């Protein structure tokens, strides 16, 4: 990459794992279950999308994000109550935690089920038990839409689009810059605001690495409708970041929607 010499070895290794999707918007695919975590930065805060599959992974992410962006995580958005997306939350003491309305019930009432589900998926039993013991239920519950202001014009939209993949599904949208406003006049490389397309973290409403996983808490009949809302929200030009797999486009999401709808017949 040619940038290696600019960083201490540790930081270069960390940065290597993260994919920059827009200025200050990054994501990493975690090992094990290939769950995606996202980072969105603004002058006033750093928002993390999902927290990993164990406390150990959450703690690793905490250190890594601090290294990567030079500041600690201040906000967390949980996309849905599955172990590989929420088990690391307790590693981020002091962060403001958001989630779709209803997720708090699952994360408090159904701890044992989450622990057992994680164990079935191969997480060591002690790690699953530890994470389930200290599960954090969000203080901030989003029923419709909510905007988190990270300062400097960076506003992040949280939208509750569930139930679909799970009983409670939230997506996180970073709006794109207005391409027409900058036109061709901003001198290349001098503008602080690099133009970028919208980026939307879809949770497991979209999956690229395999067919969308529908567990016992899925609502298959409502899933296509949730994807319609997602497409409407993020638009044709957005980068769609699936819960598992490579970043996709609107056409991919439309195909997945059609497949899900066909599966209902
Ligand atoms: Zn899931």
UniProtKB/TrEMBL annotation:
One Pfam family this sequence matches: Lactamase_B
InterPro entries, per the entry: Metallo-B-lactamas, NDM-1-like, RibonucZ/Hydroxyglut_hydro
Domain Metallo-beta-lactamase: 34-244
Cross-referenced SMART domains: Lactamase_B (SM00849)
Protein's name in the database: Metallo-beta-lactamase domain-containing protein
Species whose genome carries this gene: Streptomyces smaragdinus
């Amino acid at each position: 990459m040619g940038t290696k010499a600019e960083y201490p070895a540790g930081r270069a290794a960390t940065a290597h794992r993260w994919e920059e999707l827009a200025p200050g918007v990054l994501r990493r695919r975690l090992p094990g279950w290939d769950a995606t975590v996202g980072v969105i930065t603004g002058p006033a805060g750093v928002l993390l999308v999902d927290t990993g599959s164990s406390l150990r992974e959450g703690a690793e992410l905490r250190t890594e994000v601090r290294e990567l962006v030079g500041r600690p995580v201040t906000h967390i958005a949980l996309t849905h109550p599955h172990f590989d997306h929420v088990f690391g939350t307790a590693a981020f003491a002091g962060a403001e935690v958001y989630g779709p309305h209803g997720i708090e019930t699952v994360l408090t009432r159904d701890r044992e089920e989450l622990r057992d589900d994680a164990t079935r998926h191969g997480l060591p039993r002690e790690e699953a038990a530890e994470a389930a013991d200290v599960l954090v239920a969000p203080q901030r519950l989003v029923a419709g839409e909510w905007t988190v202001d990270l300062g400097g014009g960076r506003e992040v939209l949280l939208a509750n689009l569930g139930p679909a993949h799970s009983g409670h599904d939230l997506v996180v949208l970073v709006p794109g810059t207005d391409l027409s406003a900058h036109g061709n006049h901003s001198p290349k490389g001098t503008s602080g605001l690099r133009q970028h397309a919208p980026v939307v973290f879809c949770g497991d409403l979209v999956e690229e690495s395999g067919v969308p996983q529908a567990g016992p808490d899925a609502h298959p009949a409502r899933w296509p409708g949730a994807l319609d809302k997602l497409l409407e929200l993020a638009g044709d030009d957005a980068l769609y970041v699936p819960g598992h797999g490579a970043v996709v486009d609107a056409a991919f999401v439309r195909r997945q929607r059609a497949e899900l709808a066909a599966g209902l017949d």
